[in-house]
Amino acid sequence: MLDLKTVLVVALATASLQAAAWVFVWQAWRHLYELKFIAAGFGAIAAGLLLMILRGAEPEPLAIVLHNTVIKLGLVLLAEGLARFLGQPRYTWVGVSLLVCQIAIWSAAVAIDPGDIAIRIYSSTAFTVVMMSVMCLGLVRDRTQPKLLRWITIGILVEYMAASLLQSVIEYRLPADFDGGPILADRNAWYLLQGTLFLIAFFACLLFMVSARLSADLRRKHDALLREVEERRKLESRLSASLETERALRDEQADFMRVVSHEFRTPLAIIRNAADMIGLVGETSSGANRERLAGIGEALNRLFSLIDRFMADDRENGFQPEPLQLGSLIGDVRLHFEMTERGDRLHFSLADEAVSLHADPDMLGTVLINLIDNALKYAPDDPSIRVEAWEEQGSVVICVRDRGIGIPGAEASKIGRRFFRASNAKASAGTGLGLYAARKFLAYHGGRLQLVSNGGDGTTAIVRVPSSSGARPADLREEMTA
Questions:
Q1: Is the pTM of this model over 0.85?
Q2: Fewer CB atoms inside 10 A, N or C side of the chain?
Q3: Domain 319-481 adopts which CATH fold?
């Protein structure tokens, strides 16, 4: 025959093991923080059952109220944990209100007539029905769990509510002197036994819910991983296509450079041959004509050198620095403009002609020629283009100042981009490559170009290149690539 204490021990063991199991589950999946409330709920039920087992045959009224309130607190925590786990609205205020009513009703009942348990049973039944109805409402609203599992859990809750109502009816209908039946020695033992069975069934349903949640999370992560892999494949395909396009463009560019190189050489060679023939048959020409022929020859030599070095396939031979004096560099630039009969507007000023550089004379000469060409072109009314050069803190500084149309302030950051021309320069012919090439050539030397507005009255182009006393261009390039 099963007595009340035996049933209480079975229920205690069941609730304790379930609380420990939920603690371990929560430790394994910390992101399911809602499991803390479920573990606490089973723990509170186990604690209440333990207190009931340990109390004496005639417990104090306060102990009766406390022990049963702890068990009811466990039910409130289970409802809170289930609502959080399902992502449903939490009716915490309902549980707290019921606990307060439970304490008040049970305190009054044990104070008035400790031997009459009917009022306490009716109060517990109402508490159980309300809290489990809240849990059923959350399960009905939920769409995250399998439908069959939700309805099985609802059925288990409804069964326990029905058992609680049945106990209240039995308590109301049984005679006052009834103690027990042939199997259960106490009239409350059967209710506690089926409560234990309810805990086991509810525990199993919760485990299946957690398993379904973890499976759904795993599927979502798997789907997200598949989407990411597919996106990476698309990006890889786009990258491969971009690389192929870049290779094709590079090959096309190389072919274009070879064609341009070939087509430039043919007319330049004809011009050179014509100039040589004029020189041979024109021994009696004036000194001015011979000087012009020499200028043509020098210009042709410079063009052939540029073609050989910057349009050839071997780009490693493009940059050829050598020891160079500032006076020699400026002298070559001055000679170029004198031969083209544009030197009368240029005024050169050198602080020290003996300042030495380690630079490519053709590259640096092309930079200065481009800058002076721009000054002459965009300052047609300026009779004096000033070219100044000096050494400053390990660098050679060369300035080209004009009082021309200047650079619009809104476009200053775009000047020097490939093919870009300022809005006020469209009236003059140009390609937008002069300043771009100047910046590229200066980069070989570790130098830089700065364009400064003269306050609405022209522009100053400032070139800075390391002198021989400063860092060498090769060292600077190594630092840039390090």
A1: no
A2: C
A3: Heat Shock Protein 90 (3.30.565)
